[in-house]
Amino acid sequence: MKKFIITLSSLFMLAACGNSQPVNIPVKEQTKPSPNEAVAYFAEGCFWHSEIVFQSLVGVRDAVSGYAGGDDKHPDYEKVCTGSTGHAEAVQVFYDPSKISYSTLVAAFFASMDPTELNRQGPDEGTQYRSIAFYRNNEEKKTIDEEIAKLTASKKYSGKIVTQVMPFNTFYPAEPYHQEYIKNHPGNPYVEHVSIPDWLRFKQANKATFNFKS
């Protein structure tokens, strides 16, 4: 479960991070896959957040919430939340390489979360919220390793990058109610005070780096 508890002392602080104005949440495009469409897989904490991060990038058609990185062949949300399946909340990203490169997706992945947090991301704790960059071939692994090396050399973070780099195995789509969750549940306290503010900060900090959809 999302471990987000609002105490009386923090309620007013969180309210300041809420959204007083309507926000245009990016959703999957209803267009058909392009002939050269590619797929990438990432885990970076709550998959609700990951969905809108990738779907906000030009060239990404859809980001599907799901589970990856574990051994259980029949994962579901309740089991994954226990941490017993080995899975992490992940997204399956469908993109057009002629419009956005894999290296750009990797850069956006690292820029949209804290890669130094071990088995957690923000208020969410547990191995199911660990960050993982999945690769499907040696070229993708090289791209991920190079991004980690670049970030390490830049000394952007005081701590060590602990994001796992793992070969992709199997992706299991999450339950239907998790798909486009933020768009469909903008009033959810977690969405309003965590997911949307995190995404808006990501966009603001990287508006000169990535090509965002309007």
Overall description:
The protein has 214 residues and is an alpha+beta fold. It has seven helices and eight strands, in the order αβαβαβαβββαββαα. It has helices at residues 8-17, 47-55, 77-81, 102-111, 138-154, 181-184, 189-205; strands at residues 38-44, 60-68, 88-95, 120-121, 124-125, 131-135, 164-167, 171-173. The strands form two sheets. The protein has a six-stranded mixed β-sheet. A two-stranded antiparallel ribbon has the order 4-5. A hairpin with a 2-residue loop joins β4 and β5 (124-125).
Question: How would you describe this structure in keywords?
Answer:
214 residues; 34% helix; 8 strands; Peptide Methionine Sulfoxide Reductase, Chain A; alpha+beta; two-stranded antiparallel ribbon; six-stranded mixed beta sheet
CATH superfamily: Peptide methionine sulphoxide reductase MsrA
Q: Determine the structural class based on helices, strands and strand pairing.
A: alpha+beta
Query: Which percent range fits the helix content?
Result: 25-40%
CATH architecture: 2-Layer Sandwich
Number of extended strands? 8
- SSE series: HEHEHEHEEEHEEHH
Number of domains: 1
CATH topology: Peptide Methionine Sulfoxide Reductase, Chain A
Number of helices: 7
How far apart the termini lie comes to: 32 Å
> What percent strand?
15-25%
Segments where pLDDT lies below 50 for 5+ residues?
4-20
Major beta-sheet overview: 6 strands, mixed
Mean pLDDT, to the nearest integer, reads 91
> What is the alpha-carbon Rg in Å?
16 Å
- The top-level CATH class is Alpha Beta
Strand order of the largest sheet: 7-6-1-3-2-8
